[in-house]
């Protein structure tokens, strides 16, 4: 049941809470096309901030953007057998265009390997052309049966990196490097801690040799795959005959990678930080880091508080802070507070006649740290610097809070299967357990508990005393992270 | 026949020259999908610079970005009759998805009015919701019979602005404002002069009340429509029943606009400035404004010139100049000069051992102004400031040169039809003539001469002594700009 703010509490129905946030914070809305959402300006601005940060990191690691066609010839998709099997069932097909039936139907790209590799085979001739380090910002379409805004939509926006290398080692290095870039972005920008590691064979990208992923834990204790980086080996090079001439004159297949994150990250952001009052945005990804709410009763006061609000705005913009003055008429300050809380703005500044008199403003944080005062009066003099520091603190605290939450929802060393089953059915969370390495066992646990192996975690995440037995009782070959997941 | 640089001279075959530039400057290449090009990194970087500038101007005029679905239900397209007639014949249709035939086929958007307006009808309730000022960066698909890279491709990238207003005046103001934004961008960034004005009924956007356009003249004296801004009146509001409640409680239809520019602008840039040696880029849109070419014979020299080149690079980057050091091994400096000339880099810096000795660098402009020296030695000390100023000069000179060229290819006051016909068949260019205002006459001239009325120009462009007769001999109602065009 929605609370006084029109939001269902998370504890009551997390899924309803999520849908209401998306709606009420005006992040996205439904469209007349099944499974396709509209990303509204407030949601799209978050995506633009994400894009800006990621794009900078891609360029800093030597990548260039390019753009490949939306359509793939249907025959190109089936050149790599596993890739075809993985994607063909969920594609959208163009059969008619320009008023006539096409000789060969076109597939709307579900991912771009099958159009990029035939083209790169022309671009790549010699070892001098390598490495090729490309990225594309684009829309892709996967015909999903059940969709949810941001988390799983028929059309979504993403970036897809595609690279070609002269050696297996370089390709593996690139795959790991980009996984690291994702992790840095998720932690430093999204304030969302992740566990990085290797996917099992059953969860591997269709056509990849190895898939690495960043796995996060949402506030309902369900896991979410936030980004993937694939070492494609020579699979696509072989399928599309992409060769380069070595210094010795040999013609050999290239090694390739691909890696991507999507608008799904906005869903991850919502479910990592939000609370019963609404969205909570880490400052670095907040469309507005600060919202100024002027408070007045009469025209004279109005003039004073707007003048003061304007001064603050100019100072903050000079300091590189994204700020908005909420000048809406006919709406009381309390309603504005609610509105911006629901939209997750990290800091609100109240400017009333008494504040103007005292040459100060009242700062209110979206999230009050334990033991701190909810409201903090700040002198106007030097306010931009103080707020800039506060925003940096909030960013750090957001990550620390999310990390503490994840750790409190993480269990290690479980070997008893019935205890594991109970855990997945009740609290959920991340469970570090053993795994015998058998696909059958993996499937059985999935069938029994609806949980999956999220990753075989990278070394730094592993337990000092990892379980010696798999949940099935056999000796463990890998420590794995299991969870029910989106 | 290609010249020593592998380029066909413009005077011999402009169209071949264009295709070769696109290929050799690595701006775009063909794809296995008919009519769809691949935008290569160097070309895409130009698009990113264009996007950055335009996006800033859109935001400065109060617009926000959003994202609407790639697909339209087929039935939505036919809600506005003229719009349907205009676009239906060139659409691509998805009939199957997720392995089954769709109940209602989906149209891949040729433009987004038919998906945006049904959605905005939900968002807009009251006069308080107006104006709605949206922009979308997206790909669109129009099934073209004859395609050319950038100028006309089946899929292209663009931005489309969509706005809703409370009154006809506001909509008209917005339409004109965005036309002005385009003009400013084209002149100040692309260094491409344009004539703004109104399209005739026959060239109007399908569904619009009035279409305004920016028209440019390419180096082969053919016109090119570079951007359009449409006052849609209440046509789409009526078709999709988009109403708002006025302060008096009435429910009335909104007034709307749309406006767009596309990757076609890259084609316009090529054909506005390029010469027989290749591309020429105005500094503001050059992926690299400066390329440093180190020159060396032995390892000792190599170390010296790279050290000097690196110092210059760091200084230039500090000054906000996009710079690249061409460190390719096994390629002589002359080949590098050719390469960067072909790619249109405004300034090249040669750094050889003697330059290092003299604490100087040699600057060479892509285009040498008349009477100026081609090569200019510059002291290392303070080189960034000097180059920054030179780049600003080059930007200004590019526009001045393009303007002078257009003016020299513009004829005013023509009333004699046979003279006009001869002009269109020989020199081409812009002809300011009279027009009786009749569609039949317009069509006849088109049939006879392959020229069209580009625009009824805005007042500032009109001739002091405009023709009093149309080409058909009847009294002129409008002065118009005619040309053969892309």
Describe the structure.
2 copies of one chain form a homodimer. With 486 residues, chain A is α+β, with helices and mostly antiparallel strands. Chain A has 3 domains: 14-273, BirA Bifunctional Protein, domain 2, CATH 3.30.930; 288-390, Rossmann fold, CATH 3.40.50.800; 410-483, Translation Initiation Factor IF3 (2-Layer Sandwich). In chain A, 35% of the residues lie in helices and 27% in strands. Chain A is built from 14 helices and 23 strands. Chain A has helices spanning 14-24, 41-60, 74-77, 81-87, 113-123, 168-188, 235-240, 264-273, 299-318, 333-342, 353-357, 383-408, 417-425, 439-449, and strands at residues 28-30, 37-39, 64-65, 71-73, 92-97, 100-108, 132-141, 155-165, 195-198, 210-217, 223-233, 243-245, 251-253, 255-262, 290-294, 323-325, 347-351, 360-365, 375-379, 410-414, 430-435, 452-457, 478-483. Chain A has an 11-stranded mixed sheet. Chain A has a 5-stranded mixed sheet with strand order 16-15-17-18-19, with helices on both faces. Chain A has a 3-stranded antiparallel sheet with strand order 4-6-5. In chain A, a hairpin with a 2-residue loop joins strand 5 (92-97) and strand 6. The mean pLDDT of chain A is 96. Chains A and B meet through strand 2, helix 2, strand 3, strand 4 and strand 5 of A and strand 2, helix 2, strand 3, strand 4 and strand 5 of B. Strand 5 of chain A pairs antiparallel with strand 5 of chain B.
